[in-house]
Amino acid sequence: MKILRIKEITLVGLFAALITIGAFIRIPVPVVPFTLQYLFTMLAGLLLGGKLGAMSVGIYILLGLMALPVFTQGGGLGYIFTPTFGYIIGFFVGAYVTGNIANKVSNPSYRKLYTANFLGLGIVYLFGMVYYYAISNFYLNTPIRLWPLFLYCFILAVPGDIVLCVIAAIIAKRIIPVIRKG
Q1: Which among 21, 49, 118, 153 is placed 20 to 30 Å from 43, CA to CA?
Q2: What's the Cα-to-Cα distance from 162 to each of 54, 108, 119, 120, rounded to whole Å?
Q3: Proportion of the chain above pLDDT 90, given as a percent
């Protein structure tokens, strides 16, 4: 087991805090709530690497499950039974995958950053939509068919996250060399 340096611990904590803040920065769009959570989970993976990025998201998840109101609609163990919890699981896996892809080289190109971001986005939506469908249909007894699920949980939500993928790549391209230097 690798012992984390102070800089790594600080960055992991910083990104856990940024993800929390991102949950409450809401950009008003019709129908689907849009927050900056995804931007910060993606940046955690890009800037810290897969393991530390996922660790940041994992800490955020643990804080929320311990009843701290860090999720967009509160916190606590009961949050596991909300339809949108799958997106939070997707943030964890997405940060890990995004970080591993982007950090295979010391100074990733924009192409590699975009590829990592869009794969991470696909993972977040896959986990989110499958979980939403399962919880709605089999636990909450509020059935949702595939087309409305696809419409509300993907088509209406993904354009803003695509913009965040581009923004994250631009930010990461500038900050990765600084983090690697220090």
Answers
A1: 153
A2: 20, 19, 11, 11
A3: 86
